[in-house]
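A quick aside before the break. I want you to see a complete sequence-to-structure record at least once, exactly as it would be stored in a machine-readable document. Don't worry about memorizing anything.
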Amino acid sequence: MVAAVNPCGFALLPAYLSLLVVGDHTPGRVRAVGRALRLALAMTLGFTGVFAAFGLVIAPVASGLQQHLPWFTVVLGLALVVLGIAMVLGRELDLSRLRRGGTRDRPLTDGFGSMVGFGAGYALASLTCTIAPFLAVVVAGFRGESALVGTGLLLAYAAGMGLVVGTAAVAVALAHGTMVRTMRGAGRWVPRAGGVLLVLAGAYVAYYGWWELRVLDGGSADDPVIAAAARVQRTLVEGVQLLGAPGWLAAGVALFALALVGARVRTRS
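That is the input. The structure line, written in tokens, reads:
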């Protein structure tokens, strides 16, 4: 659960949620929640898959690879900044729509595969901060205990990550629908607001990667931007730990129930 708000990649969580909001054209609360859960599952699969591959396959034979990961963090952050600027300028996220046989694919923010890719990027940006506890617990379970124990730990890791991002996604999906219905004309400003959030998140992620490279090169670790972000990240970690798995599960179930009740009330009306 804490991996979702790790120091390296926690800024990608609001970026991920903004992508969900921008691409949400689903009619009805229940469908919007279903879409949010589907994309949260995709993001979790991408995130967990990278950690499993790195921990079980790559790390034992290429331990020196980790020192080059900050370059990916920089590139990913800059890519998000470019995407955010395009959204602020009013460009829609339809660059991934390609004509095949006269039909159009789903846009970037609706594609299961695209969100798996985002989860993989989230994981690669997070590896330098979170691979050590993953190796110490999950990979050690595979090597020191059994494949069954290791698989159970990997599934628990995925469940914790999915619980946090899934509950947050459902909350954002419900809030987005309510906001657009309540605030007249708000719908056309949502993509631009999401773009601003992407620019800020991407800028921080790129800056963090540059800071990591500087520290690895022997520079000072003291940085006011990183220190301020670390305080925010610690607050998020405390919130995640305070609720615990039962609290997050209860919140997710309650939000889903709210969507069902709201849909039934509107149907009767």
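Two observations worth writing down. The mean pLDDT is 78. The chain has one domain: 2-268. We'll return to this after the break.
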